[in-house]
Amino acid sequence: MNAITLVIGAICILVIAYRFYGIFFTKKVLKINEDTPTPANEKNDGQDYVPTNRWVAFGHHFAAIAAAGPLVGPILAAQFGYLPGYLWLLIGAVIGGAVHDAVVLFASMTKGGKSLSEVMREELGPVAGFCTGLAMLFIITITMAGLSMVILGALAENPWGTFAVAATIPIAMLMGLINKFTGNLKISTILGVILLVGAVFYGPSIQGTWLGDVLTLDRETLSILLPIYAFFAAALPVWFLLAPRDYLSSFMKIGVFVALIIGVFIINPTIQFPAFIPEFLGGGPIVAGPVWPFVSITIACGAISGFHAFVGSGTTPKMLNRWDDIRVVGFGAMLVECVVGVMALIAATVLHPADYFAINSSPEAFAKLGMTVVDLPVLSEAIGMDLEGRTGGAVTLAVGMASIFAGVEWFSHLTAYFYQFVIMFEAVFILTAIDAGTRTARYLIQDFLGNVYKPLKKTDWLPGAIGASALACIMWGYLLNSGDIASVWALFGVSNQLMASIGLVCGVTFVLKVADKRIYALTCFIPLVYLYITVNVAGFWMVKNVYWNDMAGGYNILNGILSIIMLTLGLIIVITSFIKWRELWAHPRFTKQATAN
Asked: Nearest-CA neighbor of 394 among 274, 256, 271, 281?
């Protein structure tokens, strides 16, 4: 199987889905029209509510939703072979993810740009609203731990990579200062890109020096430093670090994946993985559980992701200038993210399976597989570091992309530089998500605890902001230190897909209220049924076989308790929603999009 076949097939399917299903869902199901102003126009305040060009809004939305998830999930799921992940990416994105993102965005806009928890409170009552808000707090906390786990395998004992990633912090701060005090975006962009590339090329010179020794960090040290960093990032003004880092990383994301797509078309590498790996369909060294339900749990972002609901009911609904932009921004951005997931899967599967498992398994686990590495020694020598046992997916993506471009003769001597650039590319995106996610967790904590102590409700109250930021970092920092990538990523996947289920619950409710035909509710109900069953099967499997099994490597009582709590919250929301659906089915109310109350 040639990689170019998978790329062309995916792009064709996604373009057709956007052209036909996207129009059907937004025009026929949601009945989107321009009869009423969008929240951005109705509440235009020049700060939060700002009518924005659809392509600028698309760029913001895509940068926010497409963090490390679509890069890591497909790589880990390659354990089952290339076909299960490939099929789930395409089917999940078209039937589930694009529908989920569009309907959550629509629901938030009909409620004036409110968050999903507020929407659920108004639609399904205070119990469902409270459960949704609490689930969102759990999920954002677990997400931070899952994403941070990816960084550990990439930067552990890697002073070059650690230097390049660390350099992005002062670079982003410098860009923020230039933008703040001069307003010259062009100068800050040029300077930022030059310094970024310079950090990668200067990296080798620190190895063997005192600075290199300082930056040679083990996983345990990194797992402590990341929450400390996040605490300061969450407390700093947005313009000083978060915004310029997000802006800078957008250039990296676009550049890297455009280069990868071009590389695949030029080189057309061979997919070395089989469609299925039979011995691991029931579970393996990377993903402990069977191919179903865990292919749909391991690959969250890229197919369907509850994390998108935070964005789709956060900043984006306050930016859209026209209702029809929902199709471009909500439906379309999800399909583009699917392309990112497909490219990540290709980068993993062009490696020899033995090399892939050597990277993503511990040395002890790999020794039990009875495999012999093929190209990994050559790749390790070209990159200049030992690649075995670097779990988490980030290293696999970097190695896979470097191996593709090594097919170009003039590029082969730059393999080490490209590898470290991709590591930095991934880490910067993860740190951006950690910055924003920790800040979001802080807001959620302040909102919840503010019901007990009113001053906490004020997000600009310094003691409250510091305390909530510290609590958020302590919570996800503990999870980060409590397991390996297999257990923590599965916990993230279950919580993330449960959030997506909640988003689809909201979708069914709104479709029943606005669609001319009640059968159109199946557009949200079918993916909801699949995803909700999948989440519960995976969640209870992990609790029984991993979290509460003292013989398992991921044994962790707390993770099991968190799983049970989240699944219980989901059950309460689903039961509450069924009561509402029965009412809507018996007495349908066809209302305008902006007054769907």
From this structure: 256
Whether the pLDDT of residue 521 is over 90: the answer is yes
pLDDT score at 403 = 82
Distance CA 557, CA 554 (A): 10
The mean pLDDT of 318-337, rounded to a whole number, is: 93
Q: How many CB atoms lie within 10 A of CB 407?
A: 14
Give the integer Cα–Cα distance in Å for 81 and 291.
10
- Asked whether the predicted pLDDT for residue 364 surpasses 80, the reply is yes
- What is the number of other CB atoms lying within 10 angstroms of the CB of residue 262? 11
Rounded CA gap, 310 and 140, in Å? 9
pTM of the model: 0.85
**Predicted local confidence at residue 596, as pLDDT:** 46
Tokens of 409: 């003769």
Q: How far apart are CA 344 and CA 146, in angstroms?
A: 18
Report the chain's mean pLDDT, rounded to a whole number: 86
In whole angstroms, what is the distance from residue 392 CA to residue 390 CA?
A: 7
Query: Do the beta carbons of residue 320 and residue 329 sit within 8 Å?
Result: yes
Q: Which amino acid is at 465?
A: A
Nearest to 472 by CA among 437, 498, 430: 437
The answer to whether the beta carbons of residues 353 and 273 sit under 8 Å apart is: yes
